[in-house]
């Protein structure tokens, strides 16, 4: 039986701890996780094993995902982790999030369960911070305008993570198929601490908004293109996060063709609908993808080369980033409790 956070101890042999969403929010600020990924992802990628995720259709519209990973280093990263995710897109009609998740962390040396934590909050934050790390290398440093396409549970995290990487952003437009959700998000995020210098605006027409934006960040389950390449201005950065299966598509072929394309990891080449479709239609070849996030961090791949070029980042998520995020949560908490 897991003990609550107030009773935790980093000592071996103790009961596993449960880390809820509010606790994760308090110990995993965007800047901390962004820094952690930038400093640890490259090295960790060589010692973390993460087989292809298990995906099981549990109904005509719902899916169960199992994402295991484990470290081969018992000294620097002595962990095994498994994330269990359910996706139920129709939950929007019930006013519930479409994605729910749990994450379990084990000691890789002894096999002991160390912690179980709210995987939904962990996923939202790690996904947003991966996009923010990519933006550090790919978006223009003087970016001022951000367009958020989608106003679901991931949208506020993406906005805040992008603002962390590009603090010069002072205008955020939010578009959603249901404008009421955009209005709600504008009202809520505008009241948060640190947002005083940012103008938030409901976007009714996506085309002119996309033409204004320095960064366009998409987090939807769309199966038809929402962002067209012809709308994007020279120098824009397109962040695609929502597509996780070949049938999904947040932008058209022109948007992919216009930009230098980077991915979070190679799974995006077979999972993200924008890329799978582009390959199938001959818009681009797999070897034309410019690189991945690890290559950018290591400096093996050059990110933005000039202000006027367009860049695209496609992210489908990875168990490696999950394990690193869980590591930071667990070690931050146990360090605080031991001091």
UniProtKB/TrEMBL annotation:
GO CC term, one of those recorded: chloroplast
InterPro entries reported for this sequence: NAD(P)-bd_dom_sf, ODC_Mu_crystall, ODC_N
One BP annotation, GO: L-pipecolic acid biosynthetic process
Domain of life from the UniProt record: Eukaryota
GO molecular function: dehydropipecolic acid reductase
Record-stated family: Belongs to the ornithine cyclodeaminase/mu-crystallin family.
Descriptive protein name: Ornithine cyclodeaminase
């Amino acid at each position: 039986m897991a003990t609550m956070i107030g009773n935790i101890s980093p000592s071996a042999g103790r009961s596993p701890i449960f880390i809820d969403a509010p606790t994760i929010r308090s110990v995993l600020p965007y800047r901390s996780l962004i820094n952690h990924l930038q400093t640890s992802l490259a090295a960790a990628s060589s010692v973390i094993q993460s087989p292809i995720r298990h995906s099981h259709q549990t109904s005509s519209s719902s899916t169960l995902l199992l994402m295991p990973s484990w470290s081969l280093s018992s000294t620097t990263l002595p962990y095994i982790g498994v994330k269990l995710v359910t996706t139920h897109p129709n939950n929007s009609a019930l006013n519930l999030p479409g994605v729910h998740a749990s994450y379990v962390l084990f000691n890789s040396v002894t096999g002991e369960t160390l912690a179980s934590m709210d995987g939904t909050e962990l996923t939202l934050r790690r996904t947003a911070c991966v996009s923010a790390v990519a933006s550090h290398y790919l978006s223009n440093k003087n970016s001022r305008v951000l367009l958020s396409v989608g106003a679901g549970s991931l949208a506020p995290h993406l906005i805040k993570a992008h603002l962390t990487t590009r603090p010069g952003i002072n205008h955020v437009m939010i578009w959603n198929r249901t404008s009421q959700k955009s209005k709600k998000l504008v009202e809520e995020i505008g009241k948060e601490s640190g947002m005083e210098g940012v103008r938030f605006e409901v976007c009714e027409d996506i085309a002119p908004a996309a033409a204004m934006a320095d960064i366009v960040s998409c987090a939807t389950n769309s199966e038809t293109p929402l962002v067209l390449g012809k709308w994007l201005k020279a120098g824009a950065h397109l962040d695609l996060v929502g597509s996780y299966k070949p049938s999904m598509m947040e932008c058209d072929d022109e948007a992919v063709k216009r930009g230098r394309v980077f991915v979070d990891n190679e799974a995006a080449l077979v999972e993200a609908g924008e890329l799978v479709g582009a390959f199938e239609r001959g818009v681009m070849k797999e070897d034309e993808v410019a690189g991945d996030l690890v290559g950018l961090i290591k400096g093996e791949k050059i990110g933005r080369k000039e202000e006027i070029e367009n860049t695209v980042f496609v992210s489908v998520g990875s168990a490696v980033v999950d394990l690193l995020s869980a590591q930071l949560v667990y070690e931050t908490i146990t360090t605080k409790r031991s001091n």
